[in-house]
Amino acid sequence: MGLESVADGVWLLRGDFRGAMNVYFVEDGDGVVQFDAGTKSMRKAVRAAGEELGGVKRVVLGHAHADHRGAAMATGAPVFCHPDEVADAESDAAIAPYMDLSQLPVAWVRWIYPMLLRRWDGGAVKVDGAVSEGDRVAGFEVIHFPGHAPGLIGLWRESDRVALVSDVIYLVDSARLKPLPHGEASVPHPAWAWDHQKAKESVRRLAALDPKVVGAGHERPLRGESLRATLERAAEKL
Ligand SMILES: [Zn+2]
User: Fold this and answer.
1) Whole-angstrom Cα distance, residue 98 to residue 121?
2) Among 177, 235, 225, 221, which Cα is nearest to 6's?
3) Sign of CA dihedral 74, 79, 84, 89
4) CA–centroid distance, residue 143 to ligand 1 (Å)
5) For 125-160, how does the pLDDT look when each residue is reduced to its tens digit (9 = 90+)?
6) With 0-12 CB in 10 A as exposed, 13-18 as middle and 19+ as buried, what is 158?
7) Rounded-to-integer distance, Cα 91 and Cα 130, Å
8) Backbone φ and ψ of 223, nearest 5°
9) What is the CA(63)–ligand 1 centre distance, in A?
10) Ligand 1 centroid to 189 CA: how many Å?
11) 98, pLDDT greater than 60
12) pTM beyond 0.70
């Protein structure tokens, strides 16, 4: 089935392009909350994973980019996101209005992204409700990490220092479409950013939480005692 255990009551489904698109499931009573929604091609796998875990009670989007909302409506569960993300989630545009792909340095990557984003996207999502800073979701606290997207949110569990953070941090080099060397992290490329300076501040805020597990939107989770330093380093680059 391909579900990987991330932490107590937290699972990861990886799919699409190099298996780099992540959808998380967090135990919530007799079912799960789905965090992020990957790409359109993952709909069947998301449905199957949700059923295996007792049913998806609600979907919470980390943010509304095409590769995070693609399978948002796969299970029919109600969809939630941050208030600042509702307009983009409900828009049928696969490319957010603030993205500037001309900033990507490699020509073929610049050319291929519009096609990729449209292929990944599942189209406009009907948002049923909002979650904001401080709200509780399945034992996690919602944290607002604006920058890469205006309403980007992460989920934080203090008891075992687990952070599920969508695209607050990249473990991929999106400008070259390849993973970063293992253990490295980066602020998402400015080409995608709603506000790149705020994106850096959000990485610093994540570092200050001193997480032991960071489940990002792409590639396998980072683990260890030195993640704070890794994240602080990332915030100084790019
Ligand atoms: Zn994104």
Assistant:
1) 17
2) 221
3) positive
4) 16
5) 999 999 999 999 999 999 999 999 999 999 999 999
6) exposed
7) 16
8) -135, 155
9) 7
10) 10
11) yes
12) yes
